[in-house]
Amino acid sequence: MLKHFNSKIIISGTDEAGRGCLAGPVTAAAVILPKNFRNKILNDSKVLSLKKRNLLRSYIEDNAVAYGIAHIYMEEIDKINILNASILAMHRALDNMNHPADQIIVDGNRFKNYKQIPHECIIKGDGKFLSIAAASILAKTGRDEYMQQIHEEYPMYNWQKNKGYPTKEHRAAIEKYGITKYHRKSFKLLPDQLKIEF
């Protein structure tokens, strides 16, 4: 069962979604949960069904002390690289909260100082601590919603299903139709890179 990191101080968990995608933004969320928060199904978003993620999204938004979500779009990813974009997304998600935290816990192993607030990086933190798991849910569902919207514009890439990840289907569509304004041009979009024209 997931637990609180420290019930004596105000903790914000943060996580991102979409780091390994070929198209769309990288999206991050930051969440402060109440000290008495409990939920039996809350876990890393990657191990939950779509139905459970959507139920949890509403539950978290209704019960969190504060939360923030932020997208970093393709042009900025291409300028500053995906690692910096992921960290920037987490910083902007923290900016979007209306409540300060005493400490930040981050899923993964890389982060940059944010407003002199202490932080700790936790490998697989989304499977260990409630606030990081909650952030993973909001980041994943927020990004999926965006990918569903842009799917309507370019249905041939089937982003409603693959969410921009490098599936065989997505790469075959890139090979056939070329790239869109939503693709990350700094990424290796096809294995040989020979058939894409910018």
UniProtKB/TrEMBL annotation:
A GO term for molecular function: manganese ion binding
SUPFAM superfamilies: Ribonuclease H-like
GO annotation, cellular component aspect: cytoplasm; ribonuclease H2 complex
Protein name: Ribonuclease HII
Lineage summary: Bacteria, Pseudomonadati, Bacteroidota, Flavobacteriia, Flavobacteriales
The protein's enzyme class: hydrolase
Location of this chain's protein in the cell: Cytoplasm
Catalysed reactions listed for this entry: Endonucleolytic cleavage to 5'-phosphomonoester
Source organism per UniProt: Christiangramia sabulilitoris
Family stated for the protein in its record: Belongs to the RNase HII family.
Domain (RNase H type-2) ranges: 9-198
Primary location: cytoplasm
Entry's cofactor comment: Manganese or magnesium. Binds 1 divalent metal ion per monomer in the absence of substrate. May bind a second metal ion after substrate binding.
PROSITE patterns in the cross-refs: RNASE_H_2
Binding site for a divalent metal cation: 15-16, 107
UniProt-listed Enzyme Commission number(s): 3.1.26.4
Required co-factors: Mg(2+); Mn(2+)
Free-text function comment from the UniProt entry: Endonuclease that specifically degrades the RNA of RNA-DNA hybrids.
Keywords (A to Z) from UniProt: Cytoplasm, Endonuclease, Hydrolase, Manganese, Metal-binding, Nuclease
Any single GO BP term: DNA replication, removal of RNA primer
